[in-house]
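The material for today's practical consists of a large collection of protein records. There is nothing in a record beyond a sequence line and a structure line. As an example, a complete record with its sequence and its structure tokens follows:
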Amino acid sequence: MTIEHLASFCIVGDRDEGLPDGLTALVTRLAEENLHYEVLLVVGESWRSTLVEAGQELAALANLRILIVADGTSPYRRRRIAAAEALGDVVVVTDPEEAMRLDLTDFAREALVNGRIIMGARARARTSFLPLHGALRLLTGYRVDTRDLRTLALPRTSLTRLLARPTAGIDLRFEAKRTPERYVRKIVEASGPSDRLLRSRRVDLLVELMSASGPRFLKGFALMALMTLAAAAAYAAYVLGALFFIRDLQPGWFTLSMGLSGLTAFLSLWAVIGSLAQARIIELLDSRQRDEVIEEMGAVSFFRQADPLNVALTGEPTRRREKR
């Protein structure tokens, strides 16, 4: 069954992954299942020479776009780059390992029909997170679950809203706890990653969760500073009351107490304003300024079978009247 919309399939691996095995078979299968499609592959700059050597083979693959990014770019930023460059009405973001085993066309079809984000999930969790991941999962605004796969299908409207967020990288991987988007988990049979990939992905996930949770932590710190400000104001009121109602006060106690409460109130107010301002700046900061596609390779044509005039001629063309 073919999809009559433009479908984009983004293949995003880890930091050191290049051309995936079975790329030709994958692109051929997607070409058979989809009428209008494109395949985006994100690789590091160190794989440029390999791409040049395989130039003829890659050129034979229709509608394949290869995005070359800087080495060391995290997988979450690579997913955001691929999704931002995709042109389709529905975009499927996955990794090479899952792309070979899952029916990506079925993911795209369900996202189009339901108008919701389709997330692949295992029936059972294979691995567990580190203790620090568990704490961050409770503090952050994401439903981090080891059953969730790295394959995600998004309609264009949902993708546009997610890309507008500064945390789009992790938004394209896990479901946010507070979001207007509707997620539907698609249970599939899938094995877990290797131990080497699992360790690398744990570190990337830890860094991304801490980065995405920065505004949340700053707002919590601002709340604590606000409570300290209230306590300083209450202590200052106590000191003023003691000055008027208590006769025998130690010399210098009033001056020292008012100085301490004033200094605490000033520092607390500075912390509140600074934390809220930084949180707002981080929320408004667009991470796309730090991401850059160094080069794009591939020849894509979505209109190879289209009529040159892009119109349908139903009758014989009328002849021009001869000039008298």
Remarks:
- Confidence is low (pLDDT under 50) at residues 307-313, 317-324.
- The first strand starts at residue 6 and ends at 12.
- The two ends are 57 Å apart (CA to CA).
